[in-house]
Structure formats: C-alpha cells, structure tokens
Amino acid sequence: MKMSLGASANPSSPQIRVLPEEISQKIAAGEVIERPFSVVKELVENSLDASASDIKVELKDGGKSQIRVTDNGRGMRREDAQICFERHSTSKIFKESDLEKIDTLGFRGEALPSISAVSRIILKTTSQDEEKGTLIEREGEELLRVSDVGFPQGTGVEVNDLFFNLPARRKFLRSERSELNQIVRYLAQVSLAHHDVGFSLHHESRVVFNYPPVGSLKERLFQVYGKSVVDNLIEIRHVEETQRLLGYGSRPPSGRKDRKHQLFFVNGRLVRDKILQAALNQAYSGFLEKDFYPEAYLFFVIPHSDVDVNVHPAKTEVRFVDSSSIFRFVARGLERSLLKGLGVKEVYPTQARGKTETRIEELPHPSVIKGFGRHTERSSFELFPLDEERRPFPRVLGQYMDLYIVVADEEGIRIIDQHNAHERILYEQYTEIDRTKAWPRKLTLLPVLFDLSPSQELRLEENHHLLEDAGFRVDAMGGSSFALKEYPDIFKEEEAKDVFLSLLEEMSEKKIEDKKNTILATLACKTAIKAGESLSFDKMTYLVEELEKTKNPSLCPHGRPIQVKLDRTTIEKGLKRT
Question: How far from 202 is each of 43, 58, 149, 218, CA to CA, in Å?
Fold first, then answer.
C-alpha cells in the first residue's frame, strides 16, 4: 500500500497536529536567529532604538560561546523587562496603522524571545526613573531568576552557548573567524548610519575597533575605511520634495571588482535592494572600467508611508510603493551629483508645469569627459599583411577593437580574448614560480602607507603567511595604519598597494589551496595585457604560441572563456558555399 508523504500510519489517528509550544518557539526563533551575527544585529538595533549614544559588543569564540551587548540607552523598568521575553512584545507598535509608518529598526517583538529560546541569557537593565536595576536570567524557555542588580542606566544582554538546545543547528555554525568577520562587517556598516553613536567591538581580550562618536558621515568613513578610501569619494546630495539622497560614491575612474562596498540605507536601515543597486550601476555606466563597480555609501530618506519594511523576518529587505519612481529619483540624483563632483557644468532650475525641474546644460557623453573612456583614430580592425612566404597555422590575421586577436587555423577562425589569454599564460608561469618559492621581490623606496578596515585587518592576520610567500611584506604602524615594504617584482611600485588590497578582498571564506590559487590568479590578472591595449603583430603571435603550450587554453584562471571558434563548416554554410 502506498502512503503519501507525512501521512500517519494509522488512518484513524489525527494527521494534523498543533505543535507543542517549545517546538514552535524554536522554529520561530530560527527564522530570526540564524547565527551569532543575527544576535548581534537584533541587540544592536534595540540599543539604537533606545537612543543609546555608546554601544559595546564583546564576543568569545566568534560569538558562538558568548555575546555581550551593553548600551547607555533608556533602559527598562522591571515590569517591562519581564514582558520583553514574551513573543510579540514591543514598545514600538500599538495599533494596526502603526505598521504603515514604522520609524524604528526593531518592531516585531521577536528579538529577545527568539534569542532566549535558543540560548542561556542574562539581561541587566536600569531605567532613568528607577534606583535599582533588574537582572533576569533564562535558559531556553525557563525563567531561572529575577533580582535586583547594580547597573548604570541602559541595558546589557549576555547571550551564552547559542543553540545549546539545538545541536543540529549549532553544528552548522561556521568557524570562529568566519562568524567574527560577519559581525565586524555588520557593525562597521551600521556605524555609518549612526556616526553620532560610539561603537566598540572586543573579541576575547582584544579590541577589534573602537569608533568614538563623530560629527559627520565623512569622519565615520575615515574611521572605518581610512584616508585612501575617503580621498576617492564624491559627495552625493540630491533633494526633491519629500525625498533625499545623501552619502558618498566612487570618484571615477576608481571602482572595485565586486559590489561588497555598495551599501544602501533606507531611513537609516541597512538593506539589500535591487532597485537601488540598479540605479547606482546605471548612473555609473560609462564612467568605470569594464567589470568594475562603483563604491557607494548611500542614505535614502523617504516618507515612512511610502516604504514597507515588514517584508523579511530579519528586516534586511524593503518594498517601495512606487519602485519605478524611486529608481528614477535615485539614478537622477546620482548622475547629477557625479557630474558635479567631476566639475562638469551642471544644472540650472527652470519652472515647468508648476513644478521645479532640474536640467543639465550641454553635458558631454561620459566617454569624452577628461580622463574617461578611450578614443582612437585606428580602425576597429587592424589587419596585418602576410609576408610573401605564407606563415603556417595557426596564423594571426589581426586585432579587433583592441580587445581580440583573430587567428586562422586548419579548422576555421578563432577569436581570442587577449587579456584572458595572457592571464592563463602568466598564471601557469606564476604557479611554477610559487612551487619553487622563487618570487622575485623588490623593496619600496619609501614605505607605502595605507589604512585597513577591521575586516581587512582580520583577513591580513589570517593570511599574512600566504601573502608573504607571494612577495608582500606588510608591517603594522599603529592604529589602523600599515606600511607595504616589499612586493613582487612583477609590478610597478605604484601598483603594488592596489594589488595587495585586492588580494585581501578576495581571500575570505576559502580553503588554503583555494587562497593560493586566488593569489596566483589575481597576480596574473593584474599583470596581464589589458583589454583596449593595441598590440603589435609580434606580441599577438607570442600570445597565441604561448597559449597553445598551456594546460588549459580554453579558460582563464577565473573560469572565463579565452576563445571562441568559428569552424569552416559553419562559415561555408552561412555563406551558402555548401
């Protein structure tokens, strides 16, 4: 007899049951609390909603063993502290209409109940109108004690042994370093939205960072990312009626190989949103090198009634009432701020149909703005004449658009990406050098100074031996400052720092062998012939010949195709020669 999945073996027994409270609580907790980062996020948001001006986070074992978040906010009276562990208990929503104008980071009333359901938790709090503080200790769903405690105004929450009662969930937590990296990244990002609040993070006995309150976003960006990042940013400022777009974006042609530094805040809430990301990338289209993305720290302020923040349990996504209008506003604001920052003659106000409009006066296309794009008098296809004595196959025919090498062989025609081909050649050469540990090195004339963010410092700690093996020697100079003193002699000195920083960004969350391959692939990419570079016939011939000798002439080290083939049969069929 066949039985449907989930059906009871006894047809007469109930097939649908109400789960016991302790099970449903743990399931609900799992929607909000996935890992130590989730705990930190929920507690920090509560601290910010309590108007804290100083927030201290302390961790052990990357947060897996212990998380402690202490603030100097309003605190709670005893009766409120006891209720806050009940599901859906909140001080931020009182009636259904409040859901349409949420202006706090937390509002669901699920943070403390969810954390408590899967940990051993101790809460200490004192409100401004009470002489004695309150201590509450819980283990899972069980209340252990409520007592008086001496505690300054504010709240401290200590979370121990996360998922102690859910071993299946606990075993899926990542390494201490991985969990710590996630928390460092989050705290650095959320601190940007609250530059007037002090943030500090301690891991075991070490101070990972300490950001005192500052007077502006730019100062906080300097604290977190350093001078080298801030110097390459343009201020973004655009206002229309009830909407505001503020922040900073890359100064072209500066860009990054990934989107990790594209941060969006909607009404102070850090979110992931495809509409905002698409508007950012469109605004920068034509200003950055191919495959590079803008860096951006953007704050979008919109009436609370025009955005729904209640679409995701972790409150990381939003939904706009009119997403098309939002896209146009953000793209327009970015484009105008960008052009203004580049010194292009920009806007003047006009009156039209009773509304103030902003127009751009005779703006050139981005590709002809000084310093951007590429202009050449050469034909897009450069044909190289053959000698009287015909060369053997494969035979280089020419270069197309300064991007591709066109080659003929016995089977047909091949179009080779010159950058990817050179990258493959260099990768295999560098692999052999790395195997023998014979990297040629060079000392900097003067130490090359730069700042690292807390996340980058952690990655440097974890990977400094691999980076030294590859020829990079970096010394700490105090605070967040570091000095590059030695680098592989395959770069110019002015390139070495950027290559080193690129490696730091690419080496997280990987096994040792994968990291070694990442280093070699990155070094090959940074030293390979670039797209858009005009090549002589001899250089093209060399690339084609060397590519034939590699182990994998089809793919570059990053997995991109190197060449496409157009076989003779396809050519003859297309030209109706068959």
Answer: 16, 5, 24, 24
In the numeric block, which tokens belong to residue 466?
């691999």
Find the Cα–Cα–Cα–Cα dihedral 313, 316, 321, 325, rounded to 10°. -170
CA distances from 432 to 113, 135, 427 (A): 56, 62, 9
Tens digits of residue pLDDT in 403-436:
999 999 888 999 999 999 999 999 999 998 888 7
| DSSP 8-state assignment for residue 358 | E
CATH 3.30.1370.100 in the chain: give the residue spans: 395-563
- What are the φ/ψ torsions at residue 398 (nearest 5 degrees)? 165, -170
Provide the whole-model pTM: 0.72
Cis status of the peptide bond prior to 553, with omega within 30 of 0: no
User: Regarding the domain delimited by 395-563, which CATH topology (the fold level of the hierarchy) does it fall under?
Assistant: Ribosomal Protein S8; Chain: A, domain 1 (3.30.1370)
Q: Are strands 307-308 and 355-360 parallel, antiparallel or unpaired?
A: unpaired
What superfamily would CATH give domain 21-211?
A: Histidine kinase-like ATPase, C-terminal domain (3.30.565.10)
CATH classification of 232-368 is 3.50.50.60, yes or no? no
Provide φ and ψ at 184, rounded to 5°.
Answer: -60, -45
DSSP 387: P
Is pLDDT above 90 for 233? yes
Range with lowest mean pLDDT among 17-26, 326-335, 390-399, 416-425: 17-26
Copy the structure tokens of residue 493: 């000195």
> What is the per-residue DSSP string for 105-164?
S--SS-HHHHHHHTSEEEEEEE-TT-SSEEEEEEETTEEEEEEEE---SEEEEEEESTTT
Angle between helices 217-225 and 176-192 in degrees, nearest 10 = 160
Residue keyed to tokens 């343009």: 234
- CB 43, CB 69: distance < 8 Å: yes
Q: Which helix (H) or strand (E) holds 22?
A: helix 21-32
18 CB-near residues (< 8 Å, 6+ apart): none
Cα separation, 10 vs 113, in Å, equals 36
The per-residue pLDDT of the chain, averaged, comes to 83
